[in-house]
Write a structure and sequence with these properties.
eight-stranded antiparallel sheet, binds fructose -6-phosphate, 3 domains, Glutamine Phosphoribosylpyrophosphate, subunit 1, domain 1, Rossmann fold, 612 residues
């Protein structure tokens, strides 16, 4: 969703800001803007639409401020309050034109604040909830920016990550957070601030993540951090470990394609050093569990949204099957609002690539509040969910830039399988079976490679069906979550209406929609219940729907009579979701490419959904 970047140093600020915004484009946005301060003057340039347009406007501005400034702020906006127009785009100026601010999050009491300001003759010009905050900061200003910011923030209900500056105090940026991430990048003679490490990475690896209610004042003297009461706070400097070029597309046409092909390496990173063959278990030190702790778990609850929730579903099946421990997956927003029953022996696992998803974070807080042990499975190091859970497993998948999640999913499943193994070994799973399972986890990258080798063949199948308006994905058992994930991938990047169903569920209604131009992707891999799914696929065929059969290598007869076939290497049922989903990712990608869609930034979508 929205992205923030700020810079104070020695180099040209507008270049660094626009480049930072470009690096956050993947998060999804519909307008962008920058503001710079130079020689006592604030210059603002905004553009509804893409960063390219903003860049052109900055270049054409001819403004001495934007060309010479070494201090500024920038923003990409994903519209919530008011359409994506220039006036609604950030940075927002106050009415006097002396204060300028960028904001992520939602100011819930903005109407009351706006009415209050209006009584003092201060009228907001945009439709946004954000603008009230800069007006309020200006109103609270009595000669010191950080005091005005803390004063204003005490009156705000909601979430914020902000960066503010004023021409009354050149050489100063003030930033603060509550519920919306802010990371500081400490460079040599320069400081960056952003909502996303991607904007900072090219300049420095030394990062400081602000906690909720922290403020930071950035000046020539460096960074000082306070809480809203002005008591100093100390936050650790961490080193960002993403490799150089990890956030670049390289020779690939899209980030999504690159990230699909990175999956073998990403999974290798996710499992590296985490398999213990001698004890036939996994070593997940971040979970902070002794075998005794693991043995005492009575139930595992997995919360997440979208793709992450689908990964959790695979984990649910594996935990119940291998460990015999009851497991449930719940959509994070539902978990939070339905007052779930939690006991002290429940173990709650929150899955989130970004570690910032608002609903998942809210579920974490609810589960902690109810006394559960909560762990996070996150990709982004230092993200809010990772920090608030305080225990968990990082994916180490590297930055995922494409909005459609691919490598995060396969790494999430790999980690869930390792959690299932760990719990199972404290229960009924014997050592030799644990060791055998370790071997299968270790083979995941190789299985994925075999599917990636079929890229051209899958592309040809995709081109056959690229003009369809509807598609169905069916599967059962471990492949039911994969059917859901396959449909999600297709709809989000190609805008084809796609539904994932349990194979048995199709004839309880959805089968009415099948016709000649509605492909059904049937997951017929060799797992328990395969024959039944073949029967369900036959039912689709009998309604004239073309069927793309996904089958296990060596079991190609399962595809007999169907229109197209994709072959997945042989592996146990709990392992097969990983190579199978890769085939569906490729299929969706090539359908979207054939339809000329904007694959990395699908319309209306944001990479990190930080509002509920
Ligand atoms: C789909 C996708 C989303 C995310 C969901 C949760 O491709 O990426 O469905 O999985 O928004 O995001 P995280 O994992 O960051 O919590």
């Amino acid at each position: 969703m929205c992205g923030i970047v700020g810079y104070f140093g020695k180099r040209n600020a507008s270049d660094i800001l626009v480049d930072g915004l470009r690096r956050m484009e993947y998060r999804g946005y519909d307008s962008a803007g920058v503001a710079c301060l130079y020689d006592g003057e604030i210059g603002v340039v905004k553009n509804p639409g893409k960063i390219k347009g903003l860049r052109e406007k900055v270049d054409a501005s001819g403004s001495g401020v934007l060309q010479n400034s070494i201090q500024g702020i920038g923003h990409t906006r994903w519209a919530t309050h008011g359409p994506p127009t220039e006036v609604n785009a950030h940075p927002h100026l106050d009415v006097s034109g002396h204060f300028v601010m960028v904001h992520n999050g939602i100011i819930e009491n903005y109407k009351q604040i706006r009415n209050g300001l209006s009584q003092h003759g201060i009228e907001c010009v945009s439709d946004t909830d954000s603008e009230v905050l800069v007006q309020l900061i200006a109103y609270c200003y009595k000669g010191n920016l950080e005091s005005a910011v803390s004063e204003a923030l005490k009156k705000v209900k909601g979430t914020y990550g902000i960066v503010v500056m004023t021409d009354k105090e050149p050489g100063k940026l003030v930033t603060a957070r509550c519920g919306s991430p802010i990371v500081l990048g400490l460079g040599k003679g320069e400081t960056l601030v952003a909502s996303d490490a991607a904007a900072i990475m090219p300049h420095t690896r030394d990062a400081v993540y602000l906690e909720d209610f922290d403020m930071a004042v950035i000046t020539d003297d460096g960074v000082q951090m306070f809480d809203l009461q002005h008591s100093p706070v100390d936050r650790e400097v961490t080193e960002m470990d993403w490799e150089e070029g990890a956030a670049e597309k390289g020779d690939y046409e899209h980030f999504m394609l690159k990230e699909m092909f990175e999956q073998p390496a990403a999974i290798r990173n996710a499992i590296r050093g985490r398999l213990d063959y001698e004890m036939g278990t996994s070593v997940l030190s971040g979970l902070d569990f002794s075998p005794r702790d693991a043995a005492l778990i009575s139930r595992i609850l997995v919360v997440g949204c979208g793709t992450s929730m689908h990964a959790g579903m695979v984990g649910e099946y594996a935990i119940e099957e291998m460990a015999g421990v009851p497991a449930e997956v719940e959509q994070a927003a539902e978990f939070r609002y339905r007052n779930p029953i939690i006991t002290p022996t429940d173990f709650v696992v929150a899955i989130s690539q970004s570690g910032e998803t608002a609903d998942t974070l809210a579920a974490v807080r609810e589960a902690k509040h109810k006394g559960a042990v909560v762990a996070g499975i996150c990709n982004v190091v230092g993200s809010t969910i990772a920090r608030e859970t305080g225990r968990g497993v990082y994916l180490h998948a590297g930055p995922e830039i494409g909005v459609a999640s691919t490598k995060a999913f396969t790494c999430q499943v790999s980690v869930m399988l390792m959690i299932a193994l760990k719990v199972a070994r404290t229960r009924r799973l014997p050592l030799h079976e644990g060791a055998e399972f370790c071997r299968w986890i270790e083979r995941l990258p190789e299985l994925v490679e075999k599917v990636l080798e079929q890229n051209d063949a899958i592309k040809s199948i995709a081109q056959k069906y690229a003009s369809c308006d509807n598609a169905f994905f069916i599967g059962r058992g471990y492949l039911y979550p994969v059917a859901l994930e396959g449909a999600l991938k297709l709809k989000e990047i190609s805008y084809v209406h796609a539904e994932g169903y349990h194979a048995a569920e199709l004839k309880h209604g959805p089968i009415a929609l099948l016709q000649e131009d509605t492909p059904v992707i049937a997951l017929l891999n060799n797992i328990p219940g395969k024959e039944k799914t073949i029967g369900n696929a036959e039912e689709c065929k009998a309604r004239k729907a073309p069927v793309i059969a996904v089958v296990t290598e060596g079991d190609e007869e399962a595809a007999e009579g169907f229109d197209d076939v994709i072959v997945i290497p042989e592996c146990p049922p709990s392992i097969t979701p990983v190579p199978t989903v890769v085939a569906l990712q490729l299929l969706s990608y090539h359908i979207a490419a054939a339809r000329g869609c904007e694959i990395d930034q699908p319309r209306n979508l944001a990479k990190s959904v930080t509002v509920e």
